[in-house]
Task: inverse folding
């Protein structure tokens, strides 16, 4: 694998781990992330160069020039990014491997297929709502009265703007970077008298188990927005596939 050029899209926890492993094996690894926050979390990773900025399929294809392989390590719910990466790899003629995050344990949890469905359901329920779905999804909850909605988002200008566009008071905006412990989740749910915690299945890197346990502990209801269909390979499978490709 030494000196092979690999382009990896995404700043997820497992994506950062994979990039570091590949660089340690001698590969030339470039990681494309959408935001400066993603770059900040990769800072100081030996042997890894970081490219910052949102790109469409054409922009991604341009980055792929000279790459031997592309790895999609974007978030499980980043459907548009997945489509653009597939299109870019097809245009550039570069093999694509998708890094798949392990599912969280969702048995017995009330779940819906989209944030729009979650909002429609919550409009018929009583009690405060904590949205832990990401700032890009906040607009789907515009049908809910702002005074009953709290949003936990990343501490970025983009996320704060999305909260303000939803009409949330500043006291209802929890700008924090996770993942969070069960105890901290419990404290937040109790502090704001949350009846409904809305989240995605972010698996272990997204702190899903800690959110679910906290909701159970304090008597809040967990409403899960299920993942889109997502095929891919585990990290060890990708490493094995790359060893075979570059043998």
Result:
């Amino acid at each position: 694998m030494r000196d092979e050029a690999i382009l990896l899209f995404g700043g997820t926890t497992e994506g950062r781990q994979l990039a570091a492993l590949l660089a340690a094996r001698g590969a030339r690894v470039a990681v494309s992330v959408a935001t400066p926050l993603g770059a900040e979390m990769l800072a100081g990773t030996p042997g890894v160069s970081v490219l910052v900025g949102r790109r469409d399929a054409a922009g991604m294809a341009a980055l792929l020039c000279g790459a031997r392989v592309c790895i999609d390590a974007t978030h499980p719910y980043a459907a548009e990014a997945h489509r653009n990466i597939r299109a870019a790899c097809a245009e550039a003629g570069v093999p694509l491997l998708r890094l798949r995050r392990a599912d969280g344990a969702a048995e017995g949890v009330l779940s819906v297929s989209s944030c729009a469905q979650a909002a429609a359901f919550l409009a018929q329920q009583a009690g405060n709502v904590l949205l832990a779905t990401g700032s890009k999804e906040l607009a789907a909850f515009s049908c809910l009265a702002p005074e009953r909605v709290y949003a936990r988002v990343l501490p970025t200008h983009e996320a704060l703007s999305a909260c303000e566009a939803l009409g949330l008071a500043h006291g209802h905006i929890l700008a924090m970077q996770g993942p969070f412990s069960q105890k901290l989740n419990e404290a937040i749910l109790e502090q704001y008298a949350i009846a409904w915690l809305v989240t995605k299945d972010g698996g272990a890197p997204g702190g899903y188990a800690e959110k679910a346990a906290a909701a159970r502990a304090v008597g809040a209801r967990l409403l899960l927005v299920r993942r889109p269909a997502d095929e891919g390979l585990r990290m060890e499978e990708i490493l094995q596939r790359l060893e075979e490709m570059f043998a």
